[in-house]
Description:
The protein is an alpha/beta fold. Helix content is 37%, strand content 11%. Strands 1-4-2-3 form a four-stranded mixed sheet. Helix 4 crosses helix 5. The chain is globular and about 65 Å long.
Amino acid sequence: xxxxxxxxxxxxxxxxxxxxxxxxxxxxxxxxxxxxxxxxxxxxxxxxxxxxxxxxxxxxxxxxxxxxxxxxxxxxxxxxxxxxxxxxxxxxxxxxxxxxxxxxxxxxxxxxxxxxxxxxxxxxxxxxxxxxxxxxxxxxxxxxxxxxxxxxxxxxxxxxxxxxxxxxx
Length: 169
């Protein structure tokens, strides 16, 4: 149904989209499983990384991060912002000399999922080079972890203890 063919719904009558919604519900049965569609799953992880939109901008992003104190990167969901940019920083040496690359995620599940994916792409064990910290769970090692995913709330807690975030890059 297009935006211009919307119909007003009078309470007490059947909603205009009710048949369409019932069809959607029947095709998405509540199986309890989350389905993630990856059309490139047959490719190697390196080939998958190269097909992401952010890959073409790698050098440009690294240049901007070196030149400017603050860089805002906006991209569509699935373009590689959360998974690739931390890896680019790690590969460029931003996590040397004991520094951490911190990546915030709005939800606990997002922090864990993205950290798992990045660890898989790096070929490391989750909690070693790549880790996460969410409320009541810290899956990182102080001396080993270089990229740390955390929720926004945990970042605020870290700021309370270290207002300048001296260990983060």
